[in-house]
């Protein structure tokens, strides 16, 4: 019940107030990590996040803990949010995000695992063919996917 109340409050805040609360709750320098995770058929794993506006689809990822390697952050976040195990591959890009935030994006490979969603954060997880990405995906995330595909195409579909 308290989670439902907090979720409603979070959705009402929008924009600057949300960032302010994130700023208060996290170290003053935030490092975000995301991954373009391919399965054996060349499809990309996307998550529908509960906390994102209108629960849109997006790349899996999260914030790094203090002294945590970025590759370990991505593996941990995927394990926590989906139950999946992944191999983290090459770095796609690093950009400075909003204010005191840096975002690193990696290419990765799905290794397996039983889907167990952390329903507090994720509503749905699904693999999509690169040519059939869902609407509502942020332009910045489409760009990360495009960079991942251009630097190293996925394996051909079986």
From TrEMBL:
Residues 28-151 form the Nudix hydrolase domain. Coiled coil: none annotated. Belongs to the Nudix hydrolase family. Keywords: Hydrolase. This is NUDIX hydrolase. The lineage of its organism: Bacteria, Bacillati, Chloroflexota, Ktedonobacteria, Ktedonobacterales. PROSITE patterns: NUDIX (PS51462), NUDIX_BOX (PS00893). One of its GO terms (molecular function) is hydrolase activity. It holds the Pfam family NUDIX. The keyword Zinc does not apply. Its cofactor is Mg(2+).
